[in-house]
Amino acid sequence: MSIEIVGVYKSFRQNGKKQVVLSGVDLTIPTSSSVTIIGRSGTGKSVLLKLITRLFFPDAGSIRVDGIEVTTASRGSIYELRENIGFLFQGSALFDSMTVRENVGFALCERSKLALKEINDIVIQRLKAVGLKEDVLDKMPSELSGGMKKRVALARVLATDPKYILYDEPTTGLDPITADAINDLIISTREQFGVTSIVVTHDMTSAFKVSDYVAMLYGGRIIEWGTPEEILKTQNPYVRQFVQGSSKGPISMLE
Ligand SMILES: Nc1ncnc2c1ncn2[C@@H]1O[C@H](COP(=O)(O)OP(=O)(O)OP(=O)(O)O)[C@@H](O)[C@H]1O
Ligand SMILES: [Mg+2]
């Protein structure tokens, strides 16, 4: 149940110009561990998560999830794999025309043979886990605050008990108390269910709290990998500048 990424390249072509985003990413996410990817805005963190679920194809390289090579797998096995992967999208991506209850229960209604009552119980339980009460059940996404949307999206991810969870900025835009509750939830999900997770975040407190390992993406590659303690003590000036959130250092504002 590990994720192994080797030599992954990805570029985009826009207005005839080629933009190289990833240029040789190597990263292994060990089974049941939680790895945080840090890096500046625009370095390709979200792109990397999308490659893992084959929402994009890489230009080169190998991505193996649960032993399946996702770059060449059949469409059928990708669908099967996706059933085991929960993806918390950066912008929450709730279905706008569905209530909270329908959003969180969607995958269970589509894929499981559970009765509506059982699905409803799971929906309420998952909402509780992310700190939301039953009074949100019949609200539409447009009636929720940004932080509530994010929590509903997380409840939706948790509803199907995935083996892998990809969290894209799970705490961004949340108040510090809710953010910490989400951090605890990421930790308990891994501890209780042995979920293998990748967390993309700018939030250093969150990165150090929830991760077994931290990886920094810079210049299209993973330039540093280590436990949170190792990352805090790193001598790599690029990583130090990022971790300390300083405008002074080798990483320029204009990059
Ligand atoms: N579908 C796409 N088409 C063209 N370019 C894209 C596409 N998706 C991403 N990119 C480009 O790839 C680069 C990396 O984007 P990505 O969203 O992965 O950054 P990020 O590291 O997640 O940043 P942030 O921290 O701001 O979320 C950006 O320059 C972006 O413009
Ligand atoms: Mg992103």
What topology emerges from the helices and strands here?
Layout: E1 3-14, E2 17-29, E3 34-38, H1 45-52, E4 60-65, E5 68-69, H2 75-83, E6 85-88, H3 100-111, H4 116-129, H5 146-159, E7 164-168, H6 176-193, E8 196-200, H7 204-210, E9 213-218, E10 221-226, H8 228-232, H9 237-244
Parallel strand pairs: 3-8, 3-9, 6-7, 7-8
Antiparallel strand pairs: 1-2, 1-4, 4-5, 9-10
Bound molecules: adenosine-5'-triphosphate (ATP) and magnesium ion (MG).
Structural commentary:
With 255 residues, the protein is of the alpha/beta class. It has two domains: 1-84 and 180-255, P-loop containing nucleotide triphosphate hydrolases (Rossmann fold, 3-Layer(aba) Sandwich), CATH 3.40.50; 91-161, no CATH class. The chain contains nine helices and ten strands. The chain has a six-stranded mixed beta sheet, with helices on both faces. It is globular and about 55 Å long. The site of magnesium ion (MG) has 4 residues, from helix 1. Residues 12, 14, 21, 39, 41-47, 90 line the site of adenosine-5'-triphosphate (ATP).
Notable characteristics:
binds magnesium ion; 255 residues; binds adenosine-5'-triphosphate; 25% strand; four-stranded antiparallel sheet; alpha/beta
CATH class value of the largest domain: Alpha Beta
Bound small molecules, deduplicated = adenosine-5'-triphosphate, magnesium ion
- Which runs of at least 5 residues are low in confidence (pLDDT < 50)? none
Largest sheet, if any?
A: 6 strands, mixed
Put simply, the count of helices is 9
Radius of gyration (CA) equals 18 Å
Binned, the helix content reads: 25-40%
The backbone outline, from C-alpha atoms, is globular
Rounded mean pLDDT score:
92
**Structural class designation:** alpha/beta
What's the number of domains?
A: 2
CATH homologous superfamily grouping of the largest domain? P-loop containing nucleotide triphosphate hydrolases
Order of helices and strands: EEEHEEHEHHHEHEHEEHH
Q: Label the CATH architecture of the largest domain.
A: 3-Layer(aba) Sandwich
The termini sit apart by 36 Å
